[in-house]
Design brief:
- This protein is mainly beta.
- It is about 10% helix and about 45% strand.
- The chain contains eleven helices and 46 strands.
- The strands form nine sheets. The chain has an 18-stranded antiparallel β-sheet that branches.
């Protein structure tokens, strides 16, 4: 402690001594012709060991500490003549420097401007970029009638700043060899530990018009963490983050967002451009064109374009970066470098792309670092097309890339792996073969999924072992499922539970049999499933909904209207490689009301019905083109993309068969789509529509999903009570727009917090035909509470609610303020409410 105090005192004294002898000199650096600010200028003052250095900011401002006056200051920047200024002191006007650009012959490009403020008018840089934009169609792949090339991809993910408690843990000492494989040369000042590597080689066949690309996988090699981790799903997620970049596209997708390209059609409206230099290379002349956002807080790039002056205005090289002011959530940094090569037709095609990104919850703490390298080889264009491989089939599933041996990669890999990358393969192989690895993964499974692994049986989920609701009271529950160690063709799951208040035993059991000689977890699924369930549920939340843990007991308002269900069902599901699937099944269900819920028929003498039986045949079609997901056991975590998802369901109710009391038909359709709207984020829209044919009591009507919990519902109605509205025909739409910091970035305090703003709305139109209303003879009365109606049919007025929220609070939390606009006189409703969510995303 004493030594630390002495050291601090020495530092303080030394610091005051230095600052006592220096002063801060400030100025602005501008282009001598355009009078525009020049960024990244190196400013240097002093001699030998007393040199002071700094660089100018994006607005040309700089400040430097100098000890004595007068002083000689040197200004240097790429594309400008070096300037040396002898300034008398901190207030010398000569500190505002005008640098002379170095221009060689630019052929048709003329440089002139006397504007003090940046403008597109009469700006040679903007005139040049407009030529690049005008020639995009020719220079992009769309300019080729056909092309064939080979593409190599390498994706490597690293841990950045592995915590000492993890890397030096005695508990994990047997795995220390993983942390000892570090790369200190990849990024200056970083010590990176690789944990994932993937390589892919494929043939690409392009044909125009229309532009279609057919991919033929040739080989794949990647680390495999064994059956416990879906390595294919990890690959999908990482490659989704590191999507291939085409500079000629108007929008560039990165981190689940769309950035406006610096050569997009509307780019001059959002970017500033500066001619920095001309470059002569192999007898060809290029213009170095720097660009930056007009607003440094928009989702735009900063970087440099190297543009050809041979009349094609093709891009020879491009670098892209993001600045620290952009709110990208978990993304701390991005660097992209792409090179283009001229072919025999004198067009420039992509030859290499290097995308590097840095992720973390805090700016300087532990995080994740990744690099995706793409190399194009053996490029041939505009040749005679006789090969059917040029014909792409958008809906046809791509065959899995064959896993190739090391000899294959030694012959086809364009660049050798680094020693660190090579060791990743060996280290993971060693890890998976360790006996202790299985036990460690079991612990991770328990923490992340709530299941304890005991041989071929998994016990859980642990959080659901104790639940509560007003009807059943405290409800202990015990569940299990089998793993692939039990069978790769059969999958068993089930649970038993007991309500301490209703003294009723609940249970569930289901067996699944794979019909495609694969595990029931493996995509594409193809199985037959048989199950039986006796349990409770809240009407409108699905007849198989079961509370997952005791936290769901925290709800507002009355919540004692439950159904006891006995459900036997047989289901058949088949998925295809193009992400189209269909399912068919039969379901026999008996519903018994409980709590304050009763089935009472209308009439001169109301009649209480003890239970309601139905038998249903159902078919469901689903198509999700280019869908991506991570498979965790039997569950999937979907990666939302720009492609829509369609589904259609048809249900036929059968009367007099297996206890069915009613004849009816139900049609239901849904479409979900995400729209990217750079630079203002993206919008998600979901539209549902349903129609029920037949005369049925209210339990068989469409019960709209309410939410009396404090958790945010992304698809339900957050201020609608349970069982508040029923319909036999309806249309609903949900809208959510994620600004991703577009507004908050312009507010200084909120900008530092890196919060992200969200708005949303839910609209529901529907109704109940007269034959299905309680006024119709022998229909069920709508539920009441203390004699007061609490369930309604929608009228001519739609149900509407809107929300405004803040996401990425501490990078993971979200809170929404929700307002209800219609049906405010219904009993027990709230006009306003808060809903909370958890989401770890970019």
């Amino acid at each position: 402690m004493t030594r630390s105090i002495i050291l601090m005192c020495v530092l303080c004294v030394t610091g005051w001594s230095v600052f006592g002898q220096t002063s801060e000199w400030k100025g602005v650096i501008r282009d001598s012709l355009s009078r525009l600010p020049v960024a990244n200028v190196t400013i240097q003052a002093g001699k030998k060991t007393t040199v002071s250095r700094t660089i100018s900011d994006p607005h040309g401002n700089y400040s430097i500490r100098i000890g004595t006056a007068p002083a000689s200051i040197r200004y240097s920047a790429e594309g400008y003549r070096t300037a040396i200024v002898n300034a008398a002191g901190p207030d010398d006007p000569r500190l505002n420097v005008y640098l002379m650009p170095i221009y060689d012959s630019l052929q048709s490009v003329t440089v002139f401007s006397n504007k003090r403020r940046y403008t597109n008018r009469d700006n040679p840089a903007v005139e040049l970029i407009r030529q690049v934009i005008a020639h995009k169609e020719t220079n992009d792949m769309g300019g080729y009638a056909n092309a064939h090339y080979q593409e190599y991809e390498k994706l490597v993910m690293y841990l950045d700043k592995v915590p000492h408690w993890l890397s030096e843990s005695n508990t994990l000492r047997r795995y220390h060899f993983l942390f000892e494989n570090t790369d200190t040369a990849k990024v200056e000042g970083k010590r990176l530990t690789p944990f994932y590597i993937e390589e892919n080689l494929s043939d690409k066949f392009l044909k125009n018009p229309p532009k279609t690309i057919n991919t033929i996988p040739l080989g794949q090699k990647k680390v495999d963490y064994g059956e416990f981790i879906d390595t294919k799903g990890i690959s999908v997620m990482f490659n989704r983050v590191y999507e291939n970049i085409n500079i000629y596209d108007n929008r560039i997708s990165l981190f689940s967002r769309d950035f406006l390209s610096p050569i997009a059609d509307m780019a001059p409206t959002f970017y500033k451009y500066y001619i920095r230099d001309t470059v002569m290379e192999n007898g060809e002349q290029w213009v170095t064109l720097a660009f930056m956002p007009r607003n440094q807080f928009d989702l735009l790039f900063t970087g440099t374009l190297y543009v050809s002056l041979d009349g094609s205005y093709g891009v020879r090289r491009v670098t892209l970066e993001i600045n620290k002011n952009i709110n990208l959530g978990l993304v701390r940094g991005l660097d992209v470098t792409q090179e283009f090569q001229k072919d025999s037709a004198r067009r420039y095609h992509l030859s290499s792309s290097d995308v590097v990104a840095d992720f973390g919850i805090t700016q300087n703490g532990s995080g994740m670092f990744g690099e995706k390298l793409v190399t194009v080889q053996r490029f041939h264009a505009d040749t005679a097309v006789t090969d059917e491989r040029y014909i792409a089939h958008p809906l046809r599933a791509l065959p899995d890339a064959p896993i190739q041996p090391d000899s294959f990669w030694a012959a086809h890999r364009p660049l050798e792996l680094t020693p660190t990358e090579t060791r990743v393969y060996k280290n993971v192989d060693s890890l998976v073969n360790m006996r202790s690895y299985k036990s460690t993964v079991n612990i991770i499974t328990l923490i992340t999924q709530g299941y304890e692994v005991i041989g071929p049986i998994e016990i859980g989920p642990i959080p659901s072992f104790l639940t509560y609701n007003p009807v059943e009271g405290v409800k202990p529950r015990f569940g299990f499922r089998t793993s692939t160690h039990f069978s790769t063709r059969y999958y068993f799951e089930g649970y038993t539970a007991y309500g301490l208040k209703d003294h009723d035993l609940k249970y569930f059991g289901r067996v699944t049999y794979a019909l495609n000689n694969k595990s029931v977890y493996t995509y594409p699924l193809h199985f037959l499933q048989i199950g039986y369930r006796h349990d409770t549920n809240i009407p409108g939340l699905g007849d198989e909904y079961v509370d997952e843990n005791i936290l769901y007991a925290i709800r507002k308002g009355a919540n004692d209207r439950y159904l006891y269900n006995r459900i036997f069902r047989i289901d058949y599901l088949r998925e295809f490689g193009d992400h189209f699937s269909y399912s068919a099944g039969i379901k026999m269900r008996t519903q018994t009301p409980s709590g304050s819920l009763h089935f009472v028929k209308t009439g001169l003498l109301p009649d209480t019905v003890l239970n309601l039986g139905t038998t249903e045949l159902g078919v469901r079609l689903r198509w999700a083109p280019h869908e991506q997901f991570y498979q965790s056991k039997i569950n999937r975590s979907y990666v939302v993309t720009k492609y829509p998802v369609f589904s259609f369901t048809y249900v036929q109710g059968l009367k007099g068969i297996f206890g069915g009391d009613y004849q009816y038909e139900l049609f239901d359709a849904n479409v979900f789509k995400r729209f990217y709207l750079p630079p203002i984020g993206y919008t998600e829209i979901s539209i549902d529509a349903g129609y029920l044919v037949g005369k049925v009591p209210w339990p068989l009507l469409i019960i709209h999903s309410g939410n009396q919990s404090f958790a945010l519902s992304r698809r339900g109605f957050n201020l609608m009570n349970y069982l508040e509205f029923v319909s036999d025909h309806y249309v609903s739409a949900s809208f959510d727009h994620f600004f991703k910091g577009f507004i908050f970035n312009r507010i200084p305090l909120l900008r530092r917090l890196k919060w992200q703003e969200v708005i949303g709305a839910r609209v529901l139109l529907g109704g109940v035909r007269s034959e299905n209303l309680p006024s119709s003879n022998s229909q069920f009365q709508f539920p009441t509470t203390s004699g007061q109606p609490t369930t309604f049919a929608l009228g001519s007025e739609p149900y509407i609610e809107g929300s405004a929220g803040i996401a990425h609070i501490f990078k993971v939390f979200r809170i929404d303020l929700v307002k209800r606009f219609t049906y405010l006189n219904n009993p027990g409703v709230s006009k306003w409410g808060f809903r909370f969510g958890f989401n770890l995303s970019f």
